[in-house]
């Protein structure tokens, strides 16, 4: 049986040709190479001995990253044509060994993913995600990370959805995963809207209501989402203005832009959580962040309708209903004062509940502190806060 020293010597000998190349091309001198050998020897003996910890691998990786950074700077400064050994390959090898030995340590996998992403090694990253999720299928954060990576770095919404759907098979009880899935869809919708505006396709057209297509089975492995085709989000040019009105109408009625997908996710999640009003409130607050999305009002109206139907006495359903008129309207918009008046009219019948008053204070304080708010609206917010505080003191 090979000892720890034998294993360390084996890994060190594999780096000898690399170090000889450094010396031959004068990237590092003899003293520096001796220092590199000593440092690697210390790390290898520590990693191959009993009692090695994940932190030992991390320190080794950090050293190699710093060494590779120095190597690159010298290669560039010296004008060396260097196409031989890659520090990236060595770092990947160390991380491979770390995750094989400590496959239960999620932090190591995250470190591996971060480095591969930084190096834009997409093929390697795909493999790392696959292995990490195989060992940690119940980590909602890892499924979310994989989905966000595919959308942000590759604009691959199909793959992002696939990660979210698979994640929900293992983490069906994770509220964060359900919320982040819907948020991912709204981010995608916002990007499509921005693309429409860039292409001049943001004209107002009437679109039919999306068909109800969410699953009725909360125990289903997958959420049945409305289908989206490439033609739905990439209509060809048509008339003299460069806009095909038929294609434009089709585009605006797709589930991606009509809000059908976030609503399907919400409906399935509410059934999974037994119509929990806290989840509904959390979903509502998340969706409020996307005020530029045209279908926001439709989504929030659906959320409020479901909450009022399933939990009519819930103060969270009431506060969502109260805030609904101002949803999606910027405080500097001419429509905002009237919408705020409608919200305050709805509030009159619920002052007796101190929990509603507390939520109103949080809402009005965020409005009151806006620098661009009209002075009269700031006065309204201040008075409303004072009234709510009086309710809490009673």
TrEMBL record:
SMART domains: HAT (SM00386)
Alphabetized GO MF terms: snoRNA binding
GO biological process: maturation of SSU-rRNA from tricistronic rRNA transcript (SSU-rRNA, 5.8S rRNA, LSU-rRNA)
Pfam families, sorted: HAT_PRP39_N, U3_assoc_6
Transmembrane parts of this sequence: none
Domain U3 small nucleolar RNA-associated protein 6 N-terminal residue range list: 12-80
Gene3D superfamilies: Tetratricopeptide repeat domain
Coiled coil (UniProt feature): none
Listed InterPro entries: HAT (IPR003107), TPR-like_helical_dom_sf (IPR011990), Utp6 (IPR013949), UTP6_N (IPR055347)
Location in or out of the cell: Nucleus, Nucleolus
Cellular component terms (Gene Ontology): Pwp2p-containing subcomplex of 90S preribosome; small-subunit processome
Keywords (A to Z) from UniProt: Nucleus, Repeat, rRNA processing
Taxonomic superkingdom: Eukaryota
Family: Belongs to the UTP6 family.
Protein's UniProt name: U3 snoRNP protein
């Amino acid at each position: 049986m090979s000892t720890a020293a034998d294993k360390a010597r084996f890994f060190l000998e594999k780096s000898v040709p690399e170090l000889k190349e450094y010396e031959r091309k004068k990237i590092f001198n003899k003293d520096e190479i001796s220092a590199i050998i000593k440092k690697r020897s210390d790390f290898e003996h520590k990693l191959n001995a009993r009692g090695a910890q994940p932190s030992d691998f991390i320190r080794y990786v950090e050293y190699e990253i710093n060494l590779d950074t120095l190597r690159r700077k010298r290669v560039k400064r010296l004008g060396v044509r260097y196409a031989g050994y890659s520090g990236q390959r060595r770092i990947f090898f160390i991380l491979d060994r770390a995750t094989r030995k400590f496959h239960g340590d999620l932090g190591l996998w995250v470190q591996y993913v971060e480095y591969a992403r930084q190096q834009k090694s997409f093929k390697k990253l795909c493999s790392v995600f696959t292995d990490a999720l195989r060992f940690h299928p119940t980590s909602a954060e890892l499924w979310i990370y994989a989905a966000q990576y595919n959308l942000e770095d590759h604009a691959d919404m199909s793959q992002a959805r696939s990660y979210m759907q698979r994640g929900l098979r293992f983490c069906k009880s994770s509220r964060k995963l359900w919320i982040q899935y819907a948020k991912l869809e709204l981010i995608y919708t916002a990007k499509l809207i921005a693309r429409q505006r860039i292409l001049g396709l943001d004209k107002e057209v009437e679109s039919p209501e999306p068909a109800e297509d969410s699953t009725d089975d909360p125990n289903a492995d997958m959420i049945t989402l409305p289908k989206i085709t490439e033609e739905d989000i990439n209509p060809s040019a048509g008339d003299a203005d460069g806009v095909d009105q038929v294609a434009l109408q089709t585009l605006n009625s797709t589930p991606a832009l009509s809000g059908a997908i976030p609503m399907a996710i919400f409906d399935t999640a509410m059934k999974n959580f037994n119509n929990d009003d806290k989840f509904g409130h959390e979903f509502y607050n998340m969706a409020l962040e996307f005020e530029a999305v045209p279908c926001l009002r439709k989504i929030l109206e659906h959320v409020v309708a479901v909450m009022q139907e399933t939990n009519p006495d819930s103060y969270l359903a009431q506060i969502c209903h109260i805030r609904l008129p101002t949803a999606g309207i910027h405080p500097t918009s001419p429509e905002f004062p009237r919408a705020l008046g409608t919200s305050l009219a709805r509030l009159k019948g619920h002052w007796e509940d101190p929990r509603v008053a507390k939520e109103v204070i949080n809402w009005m304080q965020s409005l009151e502190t806006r620098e661009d708010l009209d002075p009269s609206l700031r006065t309204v917010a201040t008075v409303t806060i004072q009234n709510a505080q009086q309710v809490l003191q009673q």
